[in-house]
Amino acid sequence: xxxxxxxxxxxxxxxxxxxxxxxxxxxxxxxxxxxxxxxxxxxxxxxxxxxxxxxxxxxxxxxxxxxxxxxxxxxxxxxxxxxxxxxxxxxxxxxxxxxxxxxxxxxxxxxxxx
Amino acid sequence: xxxxxxxxxxxxxxxxxxxxxxxxxxxxxxxxxxxxxxxxxxxxxxxxxxxxxxxxxxxxxxxxxxxxxxxxxxxxxxxxxxxxxxxxxxxxxxxxxxxxxxxxxxxxxxxxxxxxx
Lengths: 114, 117
Prior knowledge:
The structure holds two protein chains of two kinds. Chain A has no helices and eleven strands. In chain A, strands 2, 4, 5, 9, 10 and 11 form a six-stranded mixed sheet that branches. A five-stranded antiparallel sheet of chain A has the order 1-3-8-7-6, with no helix packed on it. In chain B, strands 2, 4, 5, 6, 9, 10 and 11 form a seven-stranded mixed sheet that branches. In chain B, strands 1-3-8-7 form a four-stranded antiparallel sheet, with no helix packed on it. Chain B starts with a strand and ends with a strand. The interface between A and B is medium-sized, with 27 and 25 residues.
């Protein structure tokens, strides 16, 4: 089945700096790659996603890049703010026994210090 | 507010107890999911229901028993659990169970924190 590796597990940056989180996946048939943000005491929430027919997608301070050949994708957050502090999960959509399923990475705990 | 509500938010139970977790979605979605979230591990998919029919069961022990009486409600019945079952149990919904038509976007509840003593 699909294996999603995520790095780093923890990341600390100063406010205003950029943060980058990287993920690799194993199933070359995967074609959808979302990123979820989980704040303390909350459930994960989708913040951005990308499909395999594009290489980059941007939404204000957040961008995601995808390299299908190398099977890796990254989340970029620019001009970080304290409210960006959370756990971020990458995921890849691949075939399961009865349909498609999202396989998640282990998460990156991002801390943005003022 | 994501439109997915889970109760209780916190639950402490002994290994011989029977309890249930409840999830309700107000989004009109057709698919509902149970995930287990443990520290430093990926989110683990436990069960998927599409139109009230179970379509995925990822080798979950029988001490976890799901129930989906309608497309808006999902339960997870718990009995004779083990301490290693302590975790955050997340419910999620999506417009469809993926079979080519779904974006894959999941809408999560805030979770039920379970502690098994």
